[in-house]
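Progress against Task 2.4 (sequence-to-structure conversion) is shown through the following example record, which the project officer requested during the mid-term review.
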Amino acid sequence: MFIAFNDATLYQEARLFEGDSIEKSSVNVGCAVGEELQLVEDIVNFITGETKRNVMKFDVLEDASTFKLADLTKPNSVVTKVKSRPINMNTGKVSTGPLDSYEASTGNFVSKTTIEGIDFGNNIPIIDYNPSTISSLSNGATVSTWRNSGSGGETYNLSAGGGTTPSMVNAANQNNFRTDGVQILDTEYFTIPSIAIQGDYTIYMVLGTYNLKRLSAIYGDADGETLGFAGSYSENGAATAVSNTTNEVSIRHDSRLGAIATTTSQGPLITDGVDRDDDYNGCHVFIVRRDEDSNMFLQNREGEVIAQIPGVATGKTTEPGATDGQLLLERLGTTNEISSAYKGNIARFGVISSDIGTNNAANLAVDLFNFYKI
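Structure tokens generated for the chain above:
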């Protein structure tokens, strides 16, 4: 049973952008199946009738209510919501300003905090590589430069590295995304102009897994100290080899040479892209987060946390399982130029220089998946 209230928000007055609104305060109340209409009638009669009582009561702790048909037997029998942040009535999401900027790549009017169809709000990425900056390339063309759409600007444009150059896969030829993407094969990777982030951060990526069963290193630095987020590593020190895995999560940062921090994900990291089910979807989104206490989190395309690594932050170079150290990014598609690292399609990769939290990361993951999935 859903009850909404007028004039019951936290603010006496609100000045909103056009198209924005603050949702009404509401209460959801449990009710036995089949008795909903009668409970509605009882509540309406209470409001409009003459009675000495003028307060509706729904008390889960005492299982007591003004109305006999209210079911208060469960902890979530009564759920109250008092909203304080406006939403955009067009998108249904928390408002980040008026939709007055035209985005040519998507053909939509968007807020100023939107990059290629994704509204980041206050969490603008410093680097964001997306298909809009390479859309002029034909299918199979080499991608020698991938321009940055993040706040860091052209300083962080990608350049091709390796023996051969990553290539363009247009939307019409895609098995993974509804947009263009970039294919990275053996000996191929991108060079990222060195970017170092101390403390907490958020990395997001949209990967294509058609014809893949396992994952490996997606990003890293030039010498194999920074690496993430998948793969199995047998040696300490700078990584020189990696094995593809189905559920092993491995993360390390710059100047850390001890055993790599590793855990097992809840279920396979990706769906089987070789022996594909009928409902197979090759678009996978991953969010890697480090919080202020150096705890690591991995979230999937549903926004679920599928792996956690407790923070180990001693500052020692050889500390086993260390999660501290600066995030140093210099490679996309490998770490230390290892040829057995990730080989597949990438539609998007970006970094936010703060931990945006579990809920915001979940929303970002879902937004990215909905934007890129076929």
